[in-house]
Amino acid sequence: MTSEPPASPTRRTYSFLGPAGTFTEAALAQVPEARDQTWRPVRNVGEALADVIEGRSDAAMIAIENSVDGGVSTTQDALATVPGLRIVGEYLVPVEFVLVARPGVRLEDVSVVAAHPVAYAQCLTWLTAALPEHSHIPATSNVAAAVGLVDGGISADAAIAPPGILKLYDLDLLAEKIGDNPHAVTRFVLVSRTAPPPAPTGADKTSLIVELPEDHPGALLELLEQFATRGINLSLLASRPIGDELGRYRFVIDADGHIEDERMADALLGLRRFSPRVLYLGSYPRADRAIVRYPERYSDEVFVEARDWLRGLVSGEPEA
Amino acid sequence: MTSEPPASPTRRTYSFLGPAGTFTEAALAQVPEARDQTWRPVRNVGEALADVIEGRSDAAMIAIENSVDGGVSTTQDALATVPGLRIVGEYLVPVEFVLVARPGVRLEDVSVVAAHPVAYAQCLTWLTAALPEHSHIPATSNVAAAVGLVDGGISADAAIAPPGILKLYDLDLLAEKIGDNPHAVTRFVLVSRTAPPPAPTGADKTSLIVELPEDHPGALLELLEQFATRGINLSLLASRPIGDELGRYRFVIDADGHIEDERMADALLGLRRFSPRVLYLGSYPRADRAIVRYPERYSDEVFVEARDWLRGLVSGEPEA
Amino acid sequence: MTSEPPASPTRRTYSFLGPAGTFTEAALAQVPEARDQTWRPVRNVGEALADVIEGRSDAAMIAIENSVDGGVSTTQDALATVPGLRIVGEYLVPVEFVLVARPGVRLEDVSVVAAHPVAYAQCLTWLTAALPEHSHIPATSNVAAAVGLVDGGISADAAIAPPGILKLYDLDLLAEKIGDNPHAVTRFVLVSRTAPPPAPTGADKTSLIVELPEDHPGALLELLEQFATRGINLSLLASRPIGDELGRYRFVIDADGHIEDERMADALLGLRRFSPRVLYLGSYPRADRAIVRYPERYSDEVFVEARDWLRGLVSGEPEA
Amino acid sequence: MTSEPPASPTRRTYSFLGPAGTFTEAALAQVPEARDQTWRPVRNVGEALADVIEGRSDAAMIAIENSVDGGVSTTQDALATVPGLRIVGEYLVPVEFVLVARPGVRLEDVSVVAAHPVAYAQCLTWLTAALPEHSHIPATSNVAAAVGLVDGGISADAAIAPPGILKLYDLDLLAEKIGDNPHAVTRFVLVSRTAPPPAPTGADKTSLIVELPEDHPGALLELLEQFATRGINLSLLASRPIGDELGRYRFVIDADGHIEDERMADALLGLRRFSPRVLYLGSYPRADRAIVRYPERYSDEVFVEARDWLRGLVSGEPEA
């Protein structure tokens, strides 16, 4: 596993939010196909997606949702506006935080804490109890806070960081599991250029971004009915401002199932007819590998049988 | 126009509720293809449909709904239970009644009136005012009442009959337009053996009989949504007991549009997936030739475009 | 039990479709309060309801639905158009038919059968098998056919009648249980002038007649949602033409529950706001005494609790 | 207008995100009742709400949504979890940014830019074009970046700040209107302790936070139907993770109308019956003062009339 090796026709390149040690790197480590390939650290989601679009990388790993903070707005907005992308996989990383300092610093010495704002917010209960007088300096990533301690770029006494940081830098552990929610997890997606979706596994998810056709009571209702009337459960429904004016939103949707499932294909057709803008982000295996359950009446066989029946009606065949 | 001519390979045969002079015959007279063909009078709907099924007739004209009395139960039940039929046309006949008697009888002489019970019910207001003391003898058809006067088979002084009766029999007109509702109309359908539907005209109707999958709050709702969510208006929704126990019904439906309209085909697929028993009775031109209106978003082009879009997604083509 | 006794302030009068021996009389015999009161036979539903409206009777028993034939159109239309009535009870009578003749006539002698057309239709399978050559003379009621045999008013050899006829007239039984459906049953309702509904029993039914506000896709859907969104099951939904033109219907509805149930009261409010014409026909105990089941979330307590909560919000009380 | 004056029984205190110069202060300046009262600057939303709950302030102004970035997660989560609060007003502040520096610094001298991360993201297009080589130092607020320039606490050459900063500090304007979206606006709400809602104005908004009763296809649909079936439009629907596990959300809702509007009261009753957790945040005048439009059938009179009608049915009064 190395960063930025010389290009090779047989190697694949994966962009991720660096530097080494981030949760995003931990997500990329879950991808079997990425082992022994080139991992390309970038500074933000925009860079990662640009790498994919412009061919510098084969795929990018990006954070899309956190169980405590919710959707990652910049990722959702980037996927909504950058064409030519496809989500091909999903990965979960438990979010755990440690408090670290330069060797010799003790907890009672800490008055200034460096932390990425999201990490800081997730550790606030612990910090308030353990360091009631502390002040906060924001950092651009969870790893950057720790690196700043090491290289002196940040004038803080301690930093909040992922546990893996201790293997990468010469830092002391002051406290561990300082996150407020012990079950916090971040969801990542692996994004490639537009390509056919991976084959259905029975435990798949389909991601979409949809704009409503007009602002009237019931438009969102109609959107959701496209799924409900085909027995499709949604695991995510988030709204993001389109940005042109207050009150106009697009909806980020994760639906249980694969585009090659008949009920999902039918729902997509319904959505497309309903909405002027439906962006299909991809169908891919769920990170938790949970088999999608649905009422028998929405199975592929039922759809196929109905089509055969309709064909017979039109051709005038006597009914069986 | 003759009844029961010798069979001929080039002639077609049409069954209708006889004898000559009935409203059903008036409906058959509206069928251009039936001119100069064989018209076969029968005694009831069962006989008419049996003629078609068993090949004695090419088609049968049967009454299906009256604007005052509602659906014709026997017709609806026969269509629901006799397989192998297809509705191919719809015809409207204004329902107008006259009071007739043998030559010489005057209105003030009338004390007993012969009439088919449905016709009698539709003239009750007039009869109560004009002949307050009359009594009623039921007849098996509107024409049979008049024929009974002529041949003495019914011991009545007058009969309620369609206006055309005066051209067929030697009877005097005592009163005309005696129906309570001057706009009353009966709807007839022409029924053939199962065959491909006539080509769409833009002013079509599709007839169905549907049983609900189970008795729970919302099953009928779900049935109706199959139409509403495709912009399809229903011109008829009637319930008929299935007959096995109280509270179990099948639904007789007329929907605006043709099975070859994309939105109707899609609704039929939805119905078939939803219900264990959907009987397609046919798609055919509406009697009133009124062009079917629907929101632009349900046009054929929108359906075709959505299918192309879906195909592109699955094949991994970059979006336009 | 006598017909037409002298009026008495302490006696109640009940109108029913006579003469003695009809299924309607059998329904009235199920009403405990009607025992030893005055039973007033009438010739049709219109007369029965006029008796109630004009004070000649306290209540009228009328047939409203048959498990084989469906809704009784004349009853449904009369209830829809005659104001000032309220259904106060429901009764079921099994429909069983016998073939009777004057003493001495044998089955093999029968060539002409008198029968009310509905009864005739319900016995057609048996008649076709047992008397393939018979012809049919229609009668105005099931009892009138038999009476016509006795008094010679109908020139038939046999009559279809209810089993009770043998206790009333000197007739011979030629065959019994000749109805095609052994489980056929007719539903009757007892109708009084407008009055408060009988107290809820937990096994109640509410009857309504509703016109849709306008003819657009989804109006009927919206009507049905008023029930479905309150967990209310419908045991009857029938359409009847309003009569002014083809394609305009009113809907006859039986809903599980009582107007004093919170969920039903709320549904009625929703209906009234939705539709220009909602006719409440009454809430009354179901004939089958089946306790109405509904999801716990639609119980009275939930409605009461929600109102208390809302009141607290408006008054600005801190939430518990 | 002063910060932190001595307490006085006749003065009211308003908490806001300080220091002076923030957009939040600009929102508070729109509140007529806050003029000449005590304005209390705080560091974050948690402090502002704690001030209100614990009685240090009468109300707090907090940012709730940005037209470009979407909902402010920390505010939404705080409102969802801190009991005893009520939104009493809404205010809009256009979001405009300037680039400032210490006197004498020119644009071409700038290599390091201090900025709150959200502000930085909103100016990225301009920065990339004007200062392609710059690097970014994050600050804790828009004003703190500028203050850091003045007091030397941040080692940057320039800062992104609101335009009002120039009146407060001795800084030079390097560039104005550098935000990527010229129409960007932030929505603020004024929050007090639980109290009766302000009187309806006809241009009101009702804010709610709702958890779904269970995770099944259609639960969200049912939630939305509570509004759609009463003609109520939603101006905001956002999902926020409940935080206990991935895939569990609460919904933040702004609905057009006031709790004292009959249709809104009815919708709230429906919501409460449907969901185990409905948090009412308040009804208050919309910032844009746009009169709420709704179909006539959802007017207060229709609700009142329906209740009168229902009352008459139960009491047994003859219908008018």
UniProtKB/TrEMBL annotation, chains A, B, C, D:
GO terms for biological process: L-phenylalanine biosynthetic process. It catalyses: prephenate + H(+) = 3-phenylpyruvate + CO2 + H2O. PROSITE patterns: ACT, PREPHENATE_DEHYDR_1, PREPHENATE_DEHYDR_3. InterPro entries: ACT-like_dom_sf, ACT_dom, Chor_mutase/pphenate_deHydtase, Preph_deHydtase, Preph_deHydtase_CS. One of its GO terms (molecular function) is prephenate dehydratase activity. GO terms for cellular component: cytoplasm. Pfam families: ACT, PDT. It comes from the Bacteria. Its EC number is 4.2.1.51. Residues 13-193 form the Prephenate dehydratase domain. This is Prephenate dehydratase. The record marks 186 as: Essential for prephenate dehydratase activity. The lineage of its organism: Bacteria, Bacillati, Actinomycetota, Actinomycetes, Micrococcales. Gene3D superfamilies: 3.30.70.260, Periplasmic binding protein-like II. Pathway: Amino-acid biosynthesis; L-phenylalanine biosynthesis; phenylpyruvate from prephenate: step 1/1. Keywords: Amino-acid biosynthesis, Aromatic amino acid biosynthesis, Lyase, Phenylalanine biosynthesis. It comes from Microbacterium oleivorans. Residues 208-285 form the ACT domain. NCBIfam families: PRK11898.1.
